[in-house]
Amino acid sequence: MSLSIADAIRQAEVPDSDTPELDKEVLLCHVLNKDRAYLFTWPERILEQSQYDAFSILLERRNNGEPIAYLTGVREFWSLPLKVHPSTLIPRPDTERLVEVALELLPNKPTNVVDLGTGTGAIALALASERPLWSVMGIDQSEEAVELAKDNARINDLDRVAFKVGSWCEGLNPDSVDLMVSNPPYIAETDPHLSQGDVRFEPLSALVAAQNGLSDIVDIAQQSRVCLRLQGWLIVEHGFEQASDVRQIFKDCDYRDVTSYQDLSGNDRVTVG
Ligand code: GLN
């Protein structure tokens, strides 16, 4: 069978996706190792059988619900290309809000920053890319995530960002951190959202927390008191209905100036203390 690029895209079907055309184009680009402009410049180019087969397999996986980012192995965050892997959450645009808030609050002067549950390293690397004077460390309990985050640091010329395996603040020195950031698991076990879409393929350990999704935020807020300096900042992402609970958790841990910030959809998504 000899099919052109245009034929292959026309024939392909991704019925359950919200973005079928984009999905097809992104997957074919991944197979051809080209950008999207190539598809429109050479629509009549005939695909090799092996390319067509590889495209068909990716389409089938997509139609089984696998997220595009796991199929291509990359996702952009804060304009940084990041490798992703099923051992980590796929970085989301909403999390860029946390990065923005941190950058609004703290200038480029020597600052010790820790990103708890760093996953791909997205937040740590985005902050380091904007603040050359900050010392940034990402911590994750998953060894695979830490290896991936180190790769992402290399790919983006941000090797000065350190990554280590650990559980939240374990092993951090008392009074040593100026800024602690985290996008922890915050979805309740019973949330129906967990059986829909991309999250079905993401690690539950990065998504779900006990106590209605709040237990990890409680642990982080409590543990942070020891390693954070007196004038330090804690910034966490959370679910949009959790903002008032999270503010109370921060206040119970003696945080001051506790404020929530909205994401792109106007929902409270990030709380600072
Ligand atoms: N915001 C993500 C979602 O709703 C969850 C991220 C997280 O648990 N940290 O899919």
From TrEMBL:
Keyword line: Methyltransferase, S-adenosyl-L-methionine, Transferase
Top EC category: transferase
Residues the record lists as binding substrate: N183, P184, P185, Y186
Catalytic reaction equation(s): L-glutaminyl-[peptide chain release factor] + S-adenosyl-L-methionine = N(5)-methyl-L-glutaminyl-[peptide chain release factor] + S-adenosyl-L-homocysteine + H(+)
Domain Release factor glutamine methyltransferase N-terminal, first and last residues per copy: 17-73
CDD domains hit by this protein: AdoMet_MTases
Protein name listed in UniProt: Release factor glutamine methyltransferase
GO BP of this protein: methylation
Methyltransferase domain mapped to chain residues: 109-186
EC number of the protein: 2.1.1.297
Its job: Methylates the class 1 translation termination release factors RF1/PrfA and RF2/PrfB on the glutamine residue of the universally conserved GGQ motif.
Binding site for S-adenosyl-L-methionine: G117, T118, G119, T120, G121, D140, W168, N183
Entry's Gene Ontology molecular function annotations: peptide chain release factor N(5)-glutamine methyltransferase activity
A Pfam family reported for this protein in Swiss-Prot or TrEMBL: Methyltransf_31
InterPro entries: DNA_methylase_N6_adenine_CS (IPR002052), HemK-like (IPR004556), Methyltranfer_dom (IPR025714), N5-glutamine_MTase (IPR050320), PrmC_N (IPR040758), RF_methyltr_PrmC (IPR019874), SAM-dependent_MTases_sf (IPR029063)
Protein's organism: Alkalimarinus alittae
Family from the record: Belongs to the protein N5-glutamine methyltransferase family. PrmC subfamily.
